[in-house]
Specification:
Layout: E1 11-27, E2 30-45, E3 61-62, E4 69-78, E5 85-94, E6 98-99, E7 111-112, E8 116-128, H1 138-142, E9 145-153, E10 161-168, E11 174-180, E12 185-193
């Protein structure tokens, strides 16, 4: 993402919002949480001019960081018969960020990217638990805890837009072509504490 800065210090703005999170355990020993964030950031440029050089009456426009709503849930569970097998689910939603034509006229930056949506799913197997009392072999004596996991990021394969490339035709019309974040990915992890 590119953010263009003007070195004139000719704007005033504000940011206001609320961020909350609730932690808990749906099942004992597996932490889960939900969070919601509301935010509004706007600014006005005091000496703005249009393409013809005519002064514009200042009014507020969204700042590049003006993401109004973000919501996330992280949930963990394990098999009742064998708690060494765990599952995690992560859901994220974020409203679209503002953007506009890459020029010096901030008052044209009134478009919004599509919403950010993502689902991650993970499966883990504890190999050596941290509270293991019996340290009867080499691995258990030298490793405090270890687990292996398989994760699928962006499970639904959503094309989340991060920015736009601007293409100009022979008539000087500009078109926004989206750049997408990484699609679905599979990750295998082995973690150990010594």
């Amino acid at each position: 993402m590119r953010i263009r800065y003007f070195a004139n210090n000719n704007s005033s703005g504000y940011a206001t919002g609320l961020d909350s999170r609730v932690n808990g355990e749906f099942v004992k020993g597996a932490e889960s949480w939900a969070s919601i964030s509301l935010m509004k950031t706007q600014e006005k440029i005091t000496d703005a001019v249009d393409a013809n050089g005519i002064a514009i009456t200042p009014s507020y426009v969204p700042r590049p960081t003006d993401q109004r709503l973000t919501f996330a849930i992280f949930f963990q569970d394990y098999l009742r018969s064998n708690p060494k097998f765990r599952m995690s689910l992560n859901l994220v939603y974020g409203s679209g960020m503002p953007f506009g034509v890459p020029d010096r006229n901030r008052y044209n930056d009134v478009f919004r990217m599509p919403s950010y949506r993502r689902v991650d799913l993970g499966f883990n197997r504890v190999l050596i638990a941290e509270n293991t009392k019996e340290r009867d072999n080499y691995w258990k004596r030298n490793i405090k805890s270890a687990w292996i996991g398989l994760e699928v990021f962006n499970l639904l394969g959503v094309n989340n837009t991060i920015s736009y490339i601007w293409i100009e035709d022979v008539s000087a019309n500009r078109y926004a072509v989206p750049n997408y974040l990484t699609n679905r990915r599979i990750n295998i992890r082995l973690m150990a504490k010594f």
